[in-house]
Amino acid sequence: MKVTVVGGGSTYTPELVDGIARLTGGIKVTELVLADPDESRLSVVGPVSRRIMAAYDNPADVTWTTRLDEGLDGANGVLLQLRVGGQAARHRDETWPLDCGCIGQETTGAGGLAKALRTVPVVLDIAERARQRAAGDAWIIDFTNPVGIVTRALLDFGHRAIGLCNVAIGFQRQFAAFLGVEPDSVALDHAGLNHLTWERAAVVDGIDRLPDLIDAHGAELAERVGGQWIKVAASGDPAAAAAAGPELRLAARANLMLIASGQDRPLTDRLLHGYAAQAAAALDRDRLRTQAAQAEALAEGNRMRTALLAAVSHDLRTPLASIKASVSTLRQTDVSWEAADEAALLATIERSSDRLDALIGNLLDMSRLTAGSLQPFLRPTAIDEVAPVALRGLDAGTRMRLMVPDDLPLVRTDPGLLERVLANLFANALGYSPPGRDPELHARQDDGGVLLEIADHGRGVPDELKEQMFEPFQRLDGRGGGPGTPGGIGLGLAVVRGFLDIMGGSVEPADTPGGGLTMRVRLPAAVESADAGSLTVPQ
Q1: pTM for this structure?
Q2: What span, in angstroms and rounded, lies between the C-alpha atoms of 246 and 218?
Q3: Are 123 and 161 in contact (CB under 8 A)?
Q4: Does residue 130 have a pLDDT over 80?
Q5: Structural domain of residue 113, as residue ranges?
């Protein structure tokens, strides 16, 4: 059986491949094809998927391609896992409904409908191509949100399709644990798909146990919302509490109730009232902490927006103005320019474009960090492979001296994010080192990990300002634009620290002997396993 995963470069793919690799019984996948337009993602996810298959001694052939039709040819199953528009579109789907007083969610409500309008046409086009190129009895398996809407569209257009949802099996396992039975013995009357579902019955041995499950809450707090009671906190074992005896209910205050059960001795009213008061107070404290955190996040967002407006109004317009002026000069028809003059103007355009690209890149990186949408893909990586790539496109990049020993161990990191980290640090070091004193990268093993030291020979930074320069939009002392990228908007080091934090690394500043600033980056080493000397990435 040939299975093609459209959107195979997704970070969900390794989990999917792990499940396919463990398939037993009548389903046997002999060929797994990962199709994705992003070759860089496939170059990472593809080899990992192949290794997962090999780890389970599964002989299935794993290949990957950027050509959709090639992946669809002869497929018996086509699994769709797409995010049309990427994470940027998801961010919009989950934020603009908030401005209208609606819940921001990517699969239901206003955000879900917006995603469906982008996604359904793309999915129908892929399905039509699969109809022409895949096997005649091929199934389309949709795992693309909003699953319900997308699957209904596929069925309405006559495709042999099924929607994939993992909510039902989650309920089945949870109900089985409450009832003390095997999951396979619980039959659900389930309606809906993925994030918009209902359980109307949970049948065990011919008896609907859902009413029992609803009643058997154990000790918990319930709150009336919209005329219904909902659980907001719980402790203890619900199944054991239900078997031990009846429930006791006590109003903690208006619209808040304490429910207790499973007591081996009677509880006095005074004790119950004390429990109820303490539980209500704990709930209030938790809500106040949540509200304070939300208020701080909102305030930080306002500060970021203010700084962004300042950046856009000045720092982004400066390179644009240079590009505009140079292009307008070259387009003048009444002037004949010497070759040297044209070369100088083109060089100005190139430098300004590179600067604009770096500025926008850091702005986008910072927005991803602030939104919490960045998920690193950690794998064993060689420093001497990433560092030269990070120098590409940097002015005077050849001045950077790279001293990486041959026996340096691999590090556990995301190569793409590490490249951005080093590019920012290299740009700073190159910008602040005077002519004749080239900056350096020294790499060595240190305390079970790897230490990278990027040293410049400029004016350095006073000790009292070393931590401040990692704050977003900080440009301290005018030394070529401050500790961000020279001439930049002060985001480079904030991005560096943010990326390293999510990858399990760290960065700290130190003085360079003889003058200047040294950035010390620590990264965890990839762990060598006992199995044939292979390298693993601990989670």
Answers
A1: 0.43
A2: 10
A3: no
A4: yes
A5: 2-169
